[in-house]
């Protein structure tokens, strides 16, 4: 929030959707209660949002509950937010053609994403998007598809007042309040929404809405809720910078312990908003004249990930889990200047057997460093 | 000369051959690229003709089949078993758990049991002869079959996905039925390839593509127990379509007589 | 648009040599003359080769970049793509993008003695550097080339090694773990050659390429002989699918082998060499 924070009464909330549509966003995505969770789907009306819905998250378990109140954002998160929008789960990146004389030609896939506004993005998801941008956009080879899709987004972040039991963004300092990465920031009260701009685009939109300033008591109410959302989080990581501590424990017995429990199914990496690993593959047309070269989400929990033709670098689950955790909490610091974990807790909730990254990290640090 | 292809049937429901036939235009396209010399269900009959690729559907359940599969192997340069019956014995391999053999069952079920000539076990093709490639599923995914043929025509070995069904779910945005509803889904230990059809319709995966690479069945079985399944129900989850597949076989046996 | 180097170009096979039962060399010519003229590589870099309809593999560049000859790749048929590449013949086409990665320390080695230690097909990524140095013979000091193979029949380029041996101040030592009756060279691991090599401790740069256990065993011997750890460089191999640091497969600890490597200065990668699971 800043000194220009304005107030949008609940009864007028559709004005925000109208302003977005009027600003050229043909597609507006928001959280929708569906299939027992919250999914980002196209919305046309504020009532499409999950009014009165709560999420109850535990390791390996996710349930929605209905309460009798007007809030639309009184939940923590669903299985995905921004990642599938920018880093497409499966896409063609180029096509190869072979003519009858054997000549090969190549065409890059074209993608012209529709301008898209996303309402209800969490602080953890904005932090994760920043990390994905560092990976896909800010290296030596900026990814054109990711960049185009990213640039087509307008992000309405909503401060989180109802973290789930699995959340630990306070521990990673990535939430629960919206502080960066948003075009528009938003906080929800029973009577309506506080809005503030994070970018010029957000500012322009607010001018279009022409709303009254939020009152001091409204801001205090939001701050109280955010404070409450911070202190109610019980899960923590055992530190902000665990690289050294983990590198010193590569031989810890606990890796085998978690390797016994882990299914190496890759659900954690798929729901993780920062995991970027993907595989590339070809799908040839049956007639043999053309082939599509695709990339799709893959996982360090797959054999494919470390397959070397004549051997697999990480043949067992112990080594795969160690790769994931030492990368996520360790080598990310060297690669991208910070931990790869934003505390969203998705890997805990969506693990079919409820493995808890925070508990595993604490258990590992209990072990004595390798000799 | 076009490569020669055959499709052979052993003990099975014909569903995998139907996957070929139902491919429609792709099958016609295939007929342009290869000579289909034997495919009883579709017409051509020449079971002993030498071929480049032989597809085999079904398990080895009779003495006649045990002999015939050797002839198929000898006539084929590259043998691909298709479907759960051919890769792991299939549903009919549940009889392998009957220590008394099939005689009692045959007598109990058939009016004229003397006409039934079954082996006591149903086995995968790879238990009888060398198999070059296994395509799993009940039925197989026709797309996988055609892609495998295309790769072989390119002179390359086919690539068969062996990751877990969960990843296909997540890529398609299908919501996890185990996490949101407590349904005992086998997806975390099952090989992908089906396109996650069952979870897409809100039901649990029952493992028809068999075990994925590196399947850790024990913690999933314990999770099923936590969801309220009785040990015999857990055993049945694993002992169903791919009861003889390594991983599923042992896990089912572990729960067969109660909590391990 | 994606960098032009990220979309494969069409390349044609101009020559093919079967080196051993499963190793073959392809000379490739980029079909588009403009792209061919603009293409520049550096010893130690690699290309992504694309087999139509099947996929891509990273393959190190064997040819000397300053040579006008076509691009050369020496490949062992181990996986789906390389088995398929093995079946291609002169005149066939494939896709090529690159070059990628950081190559050998040619500048750092200038004016110094150079010892090249390779094992198995690790001889391929170092050849471009050897050829580069031999073309500029006066810029480098003594050159010691040690190559080890598993079986005597795995040795490729025997005549090339014999030719190099005749050049001034070049020592070539070859070894096979299993020699066989016709094997005129040493028997044992490449590290046994280090006892017999005249490796000057002063002013020596060592480059290594081969199986990680081999490199891990050779490095302490180099250090014991007085070679500065900062003058030891090695090339690492991992699963690479994109070549541009995106797909994540090639990570070893914090390093993306495809872009941070494949050539590393020893102290930068020391913690990770031959470490189980990395």
UniProtKB/TrEMBL annotation, chain A:
SUPFAM superfamilies: alpha-helical ferredoxin. Keywords: Iron, Iron-sulfur, Metal-binding. Residues 252-284, 332-360 form the 4Fe-4S ferredoxin-type domain. GO terms for molecular function: iron-sulfur cluster binding; metal ion binding. Gene3D superfamilies: Alpha-helical ferredoxin. It comes from the Bacteria. PANTHER family: ANAEROBIC SULFITE REDUCTASE SUBUNIT A. This is 4Fe-4S dicluster containing protein.
From TrEMBL, chain B:
The keyword Membrane does not apply. Keywords: 3Fe-4S, Iron, Iron-sulfur, Metal-binding, Oxidoreductase. Pfam families: Oxidored_q6 (PF01058). Its cofactor is [3Fe-4S] cluster. GO terms for molecular function: 3 iron, 4 sulfur cluster binding; oxidoreductase activity. Gene3D superfamilies: NADH:ubiquinone oxidoreductase-like, 20kDa subunit. It comes from the Bacteria. Residues 13-151 form the NADH:ubiquinone oxidoreductase-like 20kDa subunit domain. InterPro entries: Hydrogenase_assoc-protein, NADH_UbQ_OxRdtase-like_20kDa, NiFe_Hase_small_N_sf. The keyword Metal-binding applies. This is Coenzyme F420-reducing hydrogenase, gamma subunit.
Automatic annotation (TrEMBL), chain C:
The keyword Oxidoreductase does not apply. Its cofactor is [2Fe-2S] cluster. GO terms for molecular function: 2 iron, 2 sulfur cluster binding; flavin adenine dinucleotide binding; metal ion binding; oxidoreductase activity. InterPro entries: Cyt_c3_hydrogenase_gsu (IPR012165), Dihydroorotate_DH_Fe-S-bd (IPR019480), FAD-bd_FR_type (IPR017927), FNR_nucleotide-bd (IPR039261), OxRdtase_FAD/NAD-bd (IPR001433), PyrK_electron_transfer (IPR050353), Riboflavin_synthase-like_b-brl (IPR017938). This is NAD(P)H-flavin reductase. Binds 1 [2Fe-2S] cluster per subunit. [2Fe-2S] cluster binds at residues 242, 247, 250, 258. Residues 6-106 form the FAD-binding FR-type domain. GO terms for biological process: pyrimidine nucleotide biosynthetic process. PANTHER family: ANAEROBIC SULFITE REDUCTASE SUBUNIT B, DIHYDROOROTATE DEHYDROGENASE B (NAD(+)), ELECTRON TRANSFER SUBUNIT. Pfam families: DHODB_Fe-S_bind, NAD_binding_1. Keywords: 2Fe-2S, Iron, Iron-sulfur, Metal-binding.
